[in-house]
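Quick one - first record:
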Amino acid sequence: MNINEIARLAGVSRATVSRYLNNGYVSEEKKAVIHRVIEETGYQPSSQAQMLRTKKTRLVGVILPKINSNTISREAAGISDILTKKGYQIILANTNNDIEEELKYISLFKDNQVDGVIFIATILTRRHKKLLKECKVPVVILGQLLEGYPCIFQDDYKAAGRITEQLVQTGNKFGYITVTDKDEAVGQQRKAGVVDTLARYGRELQPKCVKTGDFTLESGYEAARELFQEQGDVDTLICATDTMAAGAMTWLKENGYRIPQDVQVAGIGDSPLGKILEPKLTTIHFYYKTSGMEAAEMLTSLMESGNGGVCKEIKMGCELVLRGSHRDPVKSK
């Protein structure tokens, strides 16, 4: 089955079918006939032929740091929901937090291999920024704020501040498990939110009470071991992610600490893991799936406008989720 046969069955010219397939003007009557014939025959136009005519691939590259992360999977689900509805296919590029892999995929996608790119970013180096400037297709950054680019990002500073405000009511000595400062959002902004909020309450996050993990359960476990072996009087622990908080709670319980009586613990991110811990984890909820949807909407607008569109920055909201791993200020009085 080809376009000529569709035209013959529909009783219209080949040019009319071509206009229909490429969203050109066709009368409503002829549209209905062509649509019926295509439905009955199961005809699918050649994607290669369409690409040659329109110079569009209908492909979107999504560069992500870790495909088995709950955060990333929620963002990817939101991206997929929107792009699929709009007729795009997705090429997922999983980099396993390898900067060289990220750079390789940006280089691959930048010269019209795809119609646009969503880059779920963690660390943005000079090499990243150089390659992004060379991109000939629209790029949306998800998860970080990068000046001059359309961005969707979380209010990491506010999130960390809100969880700290809750725990400072019943906490005396604070510990914090962070990630690398090269990650501006999770590493820098969340730590700054904790430090500044404690300062407003006349408290201090001592440098010796800060340990660094790498987002994993295992790193949270090891960071907690190191922290509490050195600073056994810490009674409040905030972790930059729920996953690291889960690892920390495991170490604490294995070593006889009661949660929250001896040590109250909180994470950030509201992953499903936090809901099955005992006690359940107090945390901050981010709207990750909505963030992915917003990124996809922004990218499709840029791809379809043809002139670059407006460069938007969207800071997402967050919500405090109180469960059982923190001390209740009312009961503590």
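second record:
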Amino acid sequence: MDTNLLRQFGEVLTRKKAKLNQRIVIFTFFLVVATILWYLNKLGYEYDTELAFPVRFENFPNGKVVVGEPPHHLSMRVKTYGYTLLKHKLVASISPLVIDLERTPLLQFKRSDSKFFLTAAGLRSSIASQLRGDLQLISVHPDTLFFELTSLANRKVPVKPDLRLSFEKQHMQSAPISIEPDSVVISGPKTIIDTIAALHSQEIRLDKLTSTAEQSAVLSPIPQVAFSVRKVEVRIPVEKFTEATFSCPIDIKNLPPNIRLILLPRTVNIKCNIPLSHYSTLGSGCFEAYVDFNSIDNSLGNTIRVHTIPKKEFISNFDFEPKFVEFFIEKM
């Protein structure tokens, strides 16, 4: 008995819930239809409003470029219908207004070779001719656009890739890094070009190198500057190295013609790392060791500092002994 009552009660609830859901669906449908009809009705009204229009400037004076970024948008007060406003929002970003500076020339400030301007009044006819027929232009903001122009310059500058390298144990860079091309032609405003000494690449990180690596390096962009190429090819020679030791004679620099300088000892012992492929070429010609006679006045006692300079780029981690040698001066 109780089971039948519960079943009947559940069926009644299910029927009422289904009717309620049906009413909600019907209500929602008519609400959406009413909203669409209201919106379509509003689109038929005429509006006086401000719109942002994308703009592109073309044909700057020959041999001149803009310093900084020219305006990308202009604010315009227009009178039009809602349908037109909707179309504008859909297509304005893909069809900017074009300002041809041959037809609407820039005006130059007095006593300035680089300062120029355009007035909204001067732009009005050019803009109005590009607007849809159902868009009535009332005003343009700002009322004056300012430009700074400079001469277009070209220059060839070296490339300096930003490399972060590490090598596996017992491996080293065995020769200078090669870059192809090693220099790039840049062009842009002269005021910017004159400040660029070199082009740098985006960072390249190569870890635990055991063999020669080749990598494309993308050049870091510079606003308003064009590059003849956007990337370069970098080659880092890598091979195993060994430790080498040898002796090198000490030269004497700035020795007066009537003086004889005796050094004890006459050679230094050099220890360095060298690629295996260059081991057979190693010798005293790979280093320059010298003392400077002009530094004797600053020396302590009768010792003078020895200087060493590696003459081969594949040499690394070098050290030498002794750092100081004794000297004796004889007049001739």
